[in-house]
């Protein structure tokens, strides 16, 4: 029972760190990664329209108009490819990698701590019935029904932060 009293502040710290990392990731994606989805959609629509127009004008007497539409469609496709590359190669990717690295370091630190403080909390076995075995992963006390392991708590916090804040 003394281990659980020590682990309660640790559980709150894990929750806070997880939410802070998720908020930071969301902020980086929102403000530093260019959002070109609308422009990509418009370009894709225009390319498909020009391709249909070129196909319908593909007759000997309207060959010049068909070739012009095809050239314009090819130029727009190149612009579309450039937009897609720009979005994926944004400078914010370094910051997003930093967030991923911090998450990995958090889980490594928690794996180390789980040897010392294996149980974050004890719940009634009925309350965690379908997930009881999963929640006790890393708890060290495999026979303790309703135990919540440190790693399981961290994974649960990660999923809750993703659900509450949403992944953008």
From TrEMBL:
GO terms for molecular function: protein-membrane adaptor activity. It holds the Pfam family CHD5. GO terms for biological process: tail-anchored membrane protein insertion into ER membrane. It is found in: Endoplasmic reticulum membrane. The lineage of its organism: Eukaryota, Viridiplantae, Chlorophyta, core chlorophytes, Trebouxiophyceae. The chain crosses the membrane at residues 6-24, 104-123, 143-165. Its main location: endoplasmic reticulum. It comes from Chlorella vulgaris. This is Guided entry of tail-anchored proteins 1.
């Amino acid at each position: 029972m003394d281990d659980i009293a020590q682990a309660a502040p640790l559980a709150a710290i894990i929750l806070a760190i997880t939410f802070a990392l998720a908020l930071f990731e969301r902020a980086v994606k929102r403000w530093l990664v260019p959002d070109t989805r609308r422009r990509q959609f418009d370009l894709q629509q225009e390319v498909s329209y020009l391709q249909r127009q070129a196909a319908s004008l593909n007759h000997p007497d309207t060959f010049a108009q068909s070739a012009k539409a095809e050239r314009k469609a090819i130029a727009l496709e190149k612009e579309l490819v450039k937009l897609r590359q720009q979005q994926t190669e944004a400078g914010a990717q370094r910051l997003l990698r930093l967030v991923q690295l911090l998450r990995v370091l958090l889980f490594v630190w928690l794996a180390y701590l789980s040897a010392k403080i294996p149980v974050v909390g004890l719940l009634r076995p009925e309350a965690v019935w379908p997930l009881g075995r999963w929640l006790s992963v890393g708890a060290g006390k495999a026979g303790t029904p309703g135990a919540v392991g440190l790693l399981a708590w961290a994974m649960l916090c990660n999923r809750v932060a993703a659900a509450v804040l949403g992944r953008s």
